[in-house]
Predict the structure.
Amino acid sequence: MPNIFVLKNILTIISIIIGFYIVLFIVKQKRTVNLEKKFNQFALSSRKDYDEAYLDILGKSLVHYIHKFSNLLSKSEVLKKYSKKYEKYIKIEDQEKYSTMDFITIKFLFGLLMVILYLISSIFELSKVQFPIVLIMFVFGFFILDMFLYVDYKAKRKRIEEDLLQAIMMMNNNFKSGRNIMQAIEIVANELEGPISDEFKKIYMDMTYGLSLEVVFDRFYHRVKIEDANYITSSLTLLNKTGGNIVKVFDTIEKNFFNKKRLREEMQSLTSQSVFVFRLLCIMPFIFITSIYILNPNYFSPLFTTSVGRILLLLIISLYSLYVIIIKKLLEVKL
């Protein structure tokens, strides 16, 4: 029984690694195509029938079939509505090349991959295929992509939060120089780099469609879910209703953001020691379990082979998760 459990864990880890490499492969192909199009306009090609690498051909074929399957899935109104939540993950320059339905297609592919790996493991173990486990494996694979996207989204939010003050300062300086709102937003979108540039390009596009300043910043807040963006929206809404000087409003926003950032940095330096102790305490149980498992591999077998052990294991995981959530909430500093 423990051997089967270890084998299943190994297959699960292998499937996660394969899924991770598939995501990296797709991202790499996407960047390669973008660079190729960027440099082709400056390159002189003496022949058109050049040889392509097998990986490039495979990548293009994969993207082609993903688009075809996405077109098939787009006939479902339920899936189209569900795919709208992935709009925030598409960069503005990629909106014509990729659709939100492509994410749903990749999620289905991951789900099928997990099912195939489970079927292969069942064949090797000579065990009967169980439909509930097949369903669980498909659901697990279906949401693997969401895990990667969530991690990337958190990193993107952090980068935007750090660069937002610089964007506001740049807009305010442009207002003082006599430029209008559209020009200021366009300059920020072109001058800055990273996720904040892409978001301001979306803001600029929304304004070209005739949306007001407070509406486009409200849409910006709902994409990134950052309180500073919500503060900008509230300030601009108040400016629109009561009137006033937009330069003074952005002066106030800039000062508040600067003071808030300085206070946040001071609080982080004060709580850095507590955060380090918290992370160390979170890692210690895993180090302890690994050390015991190396010394005695059968020590934890009762937790997986007996009903009482499974209940205790569930209780341990629940208490540990509760501990991590509570301590993390206590250490959070919201300004």
Notes: Residues 46-50 have pLDDT under 50 and may be disordered. The chain has two domains: 2-142, 161-263. The chain has 13 helices and no strands.
